[in-house]
């Protein structure tokens, strides 16, 4: 799987995530506003919109975790079994199809869960909890695959083949931050379960934490891998330019028309 389509997708995902965060807080504010003045329908629409936004953000997070896991497996196989590189690496078109397929599968999963949760189907609720923990354990296991890679790179750091390019380093630090966060969250989940919190509410708590932490993990790893660019950015920081970069707003430049100056030889 090529690295660039993945990192580019993460960039697009971050932009959409912040836009959805803004809409979520707006819907939540409208819910409180309409609830105070007894607009039941508008209040209901606001809370439904907030819930749908959270579901979309959760789908974003799951796709991010899946792509990160696949990248870790791919890097491990290529590093220790370079002869299968041509088989493991997908073409950019296949990568885009894989991303769309992942969104479709997770979207269907969340939609089915909503309807079964509202119908109080406890069987699927248990299946949902099992799938959630399976995906999290799969993510942790894939993240651990980077450890033998880094040990080998450190051992043979004098060889050119052992050097990691910038996009790979970016993916690596994302994975390590995810691993650290998951290791910290597991004891917290166990503590909640020990004190009698229902498993489905523990899952909701971890999902909320993932939604909040995931964009921070992506940006933290990017900033760590581009410290020189970050220093240059803060040395000439302008809020307007910063927002244009974040939301990919192109600034139109007006061409200046003037007389053509020609030099004469004396």
TrEMBL record:
Membrane-spanning intervals of the chain: 17-34, 41-60, 66-90, 97-118, 130-149, 170-190, 196-218
Cited Pfam families: 7TM_GPCR_Srz
Record flagged with keyword Ribonucleoprotein: no
Keyword Protein biosynthesis: no
InterPro entries referenced in this protein's UniProt entry, alphabetically: 7TM_GPCR_serpentine_rcpt_Srz
Keywords for the protein's UniProt record, in alphabetical order: Membrane, Transmembrane, Transmembrane helix
Listed name of the protein: Serpentine Receptor, class Z
Species of the source: Caenorhabditis brenneri (Nematode worm)
Phylogenetic placement of the source organism: Eukaryota, Metazoa, Ecdysozoa, Nematoda, Chromadorea
């Amino acid at each position: 799987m090529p690295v660039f389509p993945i990192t580019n997708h993460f960039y697009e995902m971050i932009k959409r995530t912040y836009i959805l965060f803004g809409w979520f807080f707006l819907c939540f504010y409208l819910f409180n506003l309409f609830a105070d003045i007894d607009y039941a329908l508008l209040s209901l629409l606001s809370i439904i919109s907030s819930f749908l936004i959270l579901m979309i953000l959760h789908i974003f997070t799951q796709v991010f975790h899946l792509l990160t896991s696949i990248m870790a497996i791919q890097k491990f196989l290529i590093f220790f079994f370079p002869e299968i590189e041509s088989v493991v690496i997908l073409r950019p078109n296949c990568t885009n199809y894989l991303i769309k397929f992942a969104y479709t599968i997770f979207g269907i999963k969340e939609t089915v869960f909503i309807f079964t949760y509202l119908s109080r189907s406890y069987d699927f609720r248990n299946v949902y909890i099992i799938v959630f923990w399976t995906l999290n354990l799969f993510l942790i296991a894939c993240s651990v695959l980077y450890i033998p890679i880094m040990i080998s790179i450190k051992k043979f750091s004098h060889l050119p083949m052992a050097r990691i390019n910038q996009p790979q380093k970016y993916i690596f630090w994302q994975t390590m931050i995810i691993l650290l966060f998951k290791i910290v969250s597991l004891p917290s989940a166990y503590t909640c379960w020990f004190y009698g919190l229902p498993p489905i509410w523990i899952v909701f708590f971890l999902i909320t934490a993932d939604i909040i932490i995931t964009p921070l993990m992506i940006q933290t790893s990017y900033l760590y891998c581009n410290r020189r660019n970050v220093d240059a950015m803060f040395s000439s920081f302008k809020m307007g330019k910063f927002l244009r970069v974040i939301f990919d707003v192109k600034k139109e430049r007006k061409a200046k028309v003037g007389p053509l100056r020609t030099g004469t030889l004396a």
